[in-house]
Amino acid sequence: MKKIILIATITFLSTFAAFAQTSKDEQEILKFNSEYEQAQINRDAAFFERVLADDYTFSSETGKTENKAQALEWLRKEKEKATYKLISLKSEDVKAKVMGNTAIVTGTWVATTTPAGDDKAEPHMDKGRYTSVLEKRNGKWVVVAEHVSEAQHDRKLMEQQVLKMGQEYARIIKNQDAAAIERILADEYLYTNERGKVKNKAEDVAGYKKPAKFEIFEISDQKVRVIGNNAAVETGTVRFKGTANDGKPFDGSERYTTTWVWRDGRWQVVADHTSEIKQ
Questions:
Q1: How many Cβ atoms sit within 10 Å of the Cβ of residue 153?
Q2: What is the 3-state secondary structure (H, E, C) of 249-266?
Q3: CB 162 within 8 A of CB 234
Q4: Please, are residues 83 and 91 in contact by the beta-carbon 8 Å criterion?
Q5: pLDDT in tens, 197-250
Q6: What is the dihedral of CA 60, 66, 67, 70, to 10 degrees?
Q7: What percent of the chain has pLDDT over 70?
Q8: Any residues with CB less than 8 A from the CB of 57 and at least 6 apart, and which?
């Protein structure tokens, strides 16, 4: 009887010790996860140099993958010249499962961002899910693989944002503000007019160096169709009147189609097309 009790006691203590070790490992992983988030906010490339495994792989919801060198290069560029400001990043519903020298971490990420250099911009919130695989190598935990997915944005909010940006775009054109045009147009921007002529961003911006003078530049009948999380198409009518840079007056109306992309924490125009409305 004593022998049975002794065996049962040993078994219980062994199980408890294993549980305690697992719990300790999980706590260590959760602490690591918190430090990882803070390093992302700080764009701390040195931290990621230490904790990303040499065979690290990152996968996004689009299927795009990055290795360690590519991830570090992006971080250093963002540190030097940020494309957007990461105000906050936090995890919710975080779970860690440790299996020997391997750990799997899952959770919901919530990020708040603004465009770089625009302190007046409204903060934008994104959220999604992530899964990280870690391994203990040489006594230290390193990240071997990550996969991140993004939740669907609020479509009504996106529509409202694009409608507002459409009005802002019209105001910029009326004021012939070259600096603002430079910011709002994406690098790959193309404009196609009613005669089939195509201009790229550089050509379009150059036109504002000899600006026209608008008495009227008003858009109406705005409609927005959201596509996924990062694109929207705006259509409408524009009524304009003024004087061209050669002194000739103009007065007319056009239908327009503007394609917007959400990039670097802000909406940018990638394409415009206009067609004349005959009087």
A1: 18
A2: EEEEEEEEEEEEEEECCE
A3: yes
A4: no
A5: 999 999 999 988 888 899 999 999 999 999 988 999 999 999 999 998 888 898
A6: -140
A7: 92
A8: 65, 66, 67, 144, 145, 146
Q: Residue 100 has which token pair?
A: 């020997």
**Residue 4 CB neighbours (<10 A):** 8
* CA–CA separation, 160 and 234 (whole Å): 11
Q: 12 in helix, strand or coil?
A: helix
Mean pLDDT, rounded, of the chain: 88
Domains of the chain: 2-150 (3.10.450.50), 155-276 (3.10.450.50)
Distance CA 97, CA 25 (A): 9
Residue 269 — φ and ψ, nearest 5°?
-90, 125
One-letter identity of residue 8: A
Residue-wise pLDDT tens digits, 79-113: 888 888 888 889 999 999 999 999 999 999 999 88
Residue 151 one-letter amino acid: A
Three-state DSSP state, 228: coil
